[in-house]
Write a structure and sequence with these properties.
The chain is α/β, with parallel strands linked by helices and 510 residues long. It has 15 helices and 22 strands. Helix 8 links the parallel strand 11 (211-215) and strand 12. The protein has a seven-stranded mixed beta sheet, sandwiched between helices. The chain folds into three domains: 17-141, 3-Layer(aba) Sandwich (Rossmann fold); 150-391, tm_1862 like domain (pyruvate-formate lyase- activating enzyme), CATH 3.80.30; 395-476, OB fold (Dihydrolipoamide Acetyltransferase, E2P), CATH 2.40.50.140. Helix 12 (329-342) runs parallel beside helix 13. It has helices at residues 28-43, 71-88, 99-104, 106-111, 127-137, 182-186, 194-206, 231-239, 260-268, 285-290, 297-310, 329-342, 369-392, 411-414, 467-481, and strands spanning 2-7, 19-24, 47-48, 59-64, 93-98, 117-119, 139-144, 164-168, 170-171, 190-191, 211-215, 247-251, 275-277, 315-322, 346-351, 398-403, 416-420, 426-430, 441-445, 448-449, 454-456, 462-464.
Length: 510
């Protein structure tokens, strides 16, 4: 572990409840880590700042991502905008964690000496202690653990949803993809004990959660620690035996480890949803080899064919990188070929960007920006057409939706609600006369399809009130009764909106 300190000018303690705000960037692993950071802070007596505080909290935490090009510039830009606010607000603290903190370490406090705490991906549990130490010692605390100190799921968690939850089954990754820095920052794969995973799921279900997503950098490599190649399919089947658990999802698998027993478990376990996010990255065997991906086009399409044979209505999504170093027009055409053959419900597409510290960043034949942009636009146009065609096939179908919270940005204006179908398609539906809560289940008929969502414009056919809806209602009542965090009410100084969390598997490196 490394540690250092820099003067930050903290002030005497104020005897009020201190508020916090967390800004999250990157993949679902970071989103789940932020839930743990919230749990840790609330366990230590902090109070979550009201929505829209935008830097008005007493403690602002950045949970960073190192995958995107210019991720560091974005971080330092946001930190720079908070500097004058911190000057105006004695006692305010700023913390930086996540992958960029793991990578840059002491650089952060050198470039932004007003930062109070820097912590890594392996020691998120130290945040409250480091904040207190920085306040008392009036020095910035930098602690980066080189290996995992404790499996993160043992930490307190403030989950963002009352009805759906992430459940980590592993951390780290054993792959060596040339475009990805995640293994260097998250470490080698470490699997969690199956009994601990199932105990957490059972506890969540007892609290009212009805949907869980199994989470890992390479989720279907689960079991590699103990040499059991069928451990992941066994875990899926075990989830199927948990009473009250209605929906099971997982992200993200790797084609190398996607075996027939997993397909069988998906098809034969009723609460495992007919949805699969399977990163492609490229359809060219030449590029896949340069990426150090261990499968080829034929193997990938073979998996898709087997999944469709076993689960005909499965919605399959993917990640694709355009413009990897050395990618030729012929290579790109191979990617388009796979997209046409696979007919993805959605594809999360990324223009290749250099990621410092990765082998790909040093490769020859970096593709000119204008070429990458042109290819990207062609890919997006093709996928939009396919997504629309695939969604049109849903028109006339009767679907069960789990009502979602905050998914339909126009719901208030359109008098609709939104929910997710079993295959994870987003559906906006007419608000029924009966009260419907997030976590409840409705049955609707699809009447219209757009590339990225479906509409059910007729009357809702059925409403099923659920324990998950009860949990949402109970949680909202409890939140309303809580006192708000104490804010100083200083005028805003132009703090920018947080960057959106990436869709799909987030970093695109699975």
């Amino acid at each position: 572990m490394t540690s250092s300190s820099v003067r930050t000018g903290a002030v005497d303690e104020v005897a009020v409840a201190r508020s916090y705000e967390i800004r999250t960037y990157g993949c679902q692993m970071n989103v789940h880590d932020s839930e743990r950071l919230s749990g840790l802070l609330e366990d230590a007596g902090y109070v979550r700042a009201p929505e829209g505080s935008d830097g008005d909290a007493d403690v602002v935490v950045f949970n960073t991502c190192a995958v995107r090009e210019n991720a560091d510039n974005r971080l330092y830009g946001n930190l720079g905008r908070l500097a004058p606010r911190k000057t105006q607000r004695p006692g305010m603290q700023i913390a930086v964690g996540g992958c960029l903190a793991q990578k840059d370490r002491d650089t952060i406090v050198k470039r932004a000496p007003w930062v109070d705490v820097v912590f890594g991906t392996h020691n998120i549990g130290k945040l409250p202690v480091l904040l207190e130490r920085a306040r008392v010692q009036e020095e910035a605390q930098v602690e980066i653990a080189e290996s995992l100190e404790a499996f993160p799921s043992t930490l307190p968690t403030r989950r963002e949803s009352a009805y759906a939850a992430w459940v980590s089954i592993s951390v780290g990754c054993n792959n060596t993809c040339t475009f990805c820095i995640v293994p260097a920052l998250r470490g080698k794969e470490k699997d969690r004990r199956t009994g601990d995973i199932l105990a957490e799921i059972e506890a969540l279900v007892a609290e009212g959660v009805s949907e869980i997503t199994l989470l890992g950098q390479n989720v279907n490599a689960y079991g590699s620690d103990i040499g059991d190649r069928e451990a992941f399919s066994k875990l899926l089947r075990a989830c199927g035996r948990i009473e009250g658990l209605e929906r099971v999802r997982f992200t993200s698998p790797h084609p190398r480890d996607f075996t027939d027993d997993v397909i069988a478990a998906m098809a034969e376990t009723p609460n495992v949803m007919p949805q699969l996010h399977m990163p492609l990255q490229s359809g060219s065997d030449t590029v896949l080899k340069a990426m150090r991906r261990s499968y080829r086009q034929e193997r990938y399409l073979g998996i898709i064919e087997k999944v469709r044979a076993a689960i005909p209505h499965a919605a399959i999504t993917t990640d694709i990188i355009v413009g990897f170093p050395g990618e030729t027009e012929e290579d790109f055409e191979q990617t388009l070929h796979v997209v046409r053959e696979a007919r993805f419900a959605q594809a999360f597409t990324f223009q290749y960007s250099k990621r410092p510290g990765t082998p790909a960043a040093e490769m020859d034949d970096q593709i000119p920006k204008e070429v990458v942009q042109a290819r990207y636009e062609r890919l997006v146009a093709l996928q939009e057409e396919i997504s629309w065609d695939e969604n049109k096939k849903q028109v006339g179908r009767t679907l069960e939706l789990m009502v979602a919270e905050g998914e339909g940005r126009k719901d208030g204006a359109t008098h609709r609600l939104s929910g997710r179908a079993a295959d994870n398609r987003l559906v906006h539906f007419t608000k029924p006369d009966t009260e419907v809560r997030p976590g409840d289940v409705v049955t609707v008929e699809i009447t219209y399809a757009a590339p990225h969502h479906l509409l059910a414009e007729g009357a809702v056919l059925d409403v099923r009130r659920t324990r998950a809806g009860d949990a949402w209602e109970k949680r909202n009542a409890a939140e309303a009764a809580k006192p708000a965090g104490v804010l100083l009410g200083l005028p805003k100084v132009g703090v920018p909106q947080p960057l959106p969390v990436a869709a799909g598997s987030g970093c695109g490196c699975d």
